[in-house]
């Protein structure tokens, strides 16, 4: 059998950590700014973005911890590594986001149907804070996407996608403050808060589903499976393959594959083919952990073999 453990290079780890630290730092700044803006304006749309930024801080801190923990090499107690920590963290985050979005939605509905329209003050100050929020978020997303392209880290890529999604409620909050100041439409604030809550809930559902699927050993993406099958089918020396199985854990994909080889060749020759195939798969999918079993062509499973 051939196997290759997963290791990030030192430079990749440093880049991933830099993205994680930047994410936590930006989230801290945004929480502080929005706390001040909420105290000054009382706008529910800012409250929604404040909760979202607080969730970002939690998610960023958890993501940073997951990057650090997942980078640990496999050990005696965790022979397949530690990347499932990413999925556990994501599942907890999704549950917390769902609860928070429900709280915002209830508050928005109460304001929307209240007899007395809500009062919003210091719209200009709130707009300045949201403008700074948008600028910081764009800068963070650009850096995270650069790191994700360089390292292929799924945690950084997911965090970047999450912050990209945060631009929508922040832009909505900016519009709500403008509508209040220019047109006197204070109820727009409640509508924006309700839309932000729905956006958060949908995002949380997606995060939770992906984490749950990974924890339940769901197969890899069908395109990845098809790509691995194509590599194996056309690889020199491989007469056929079977029992291609995959599962995901965090940012890693575990691959089990049986290949069929000429039974008359030497063990060294068979091993060389298996090792070369493993390298080719890892080259195409760098986050894959590949285990290859070699069978002679035409071998039939022993009747007492319990595997299916």
From TrEMBL:
Gene3D superfamilies: Cation efflux protein transmembrane domain, Cation efflux protein, cytoplasmic domain. SUPFAM superfamilies: Cation efflux protein cytoplasmic domain-like, Cation efflux protein transmembrane domain-like. Keywords: Cell membrane, Membrane, Transmembrane, Transmembrane helix, Transport. The chain crosses the membrane at residues 20-38, 50-71, 91-113, 125-143, 163-185, 192-212, 224-242. It comes from the Bacteria. Residues 22-216 form the Cation efflux protein transmembrane domain. Residues 221-296 form the Cation efflux protein cytoplasmic domain. It is a multi-pass membrane protein. GO terms for biological process: intracellular zinc ion homeostasis. GO terms for cellular component: plasma membrane. It is found in: Membrane. InterPro entries: Cation_efflux (IPR002524), Cation_efflux_CTD (IPR027470), Cation_efflux_CTD_sf (IPR036837), Cation_efflux_TM (IPR058533), Cation_efflux_TMD_sf (IPR027469), CDF_Transporter (IPR050291). Pfam families: Cation_efflux, ZT_dimer. One of its GO terms (molecular function) is zinc efflux antiporter activity. The keyword Metal-binding does not apply. NCBIfam families: CDF. Belongs to the cation diffusion facilitator (CDF) transporter (TC 2.A.4) family. This is Cobalt-zinc-cadmium resistance protein. It comes from Rubellimicrobium mesophilum DSM 19309.
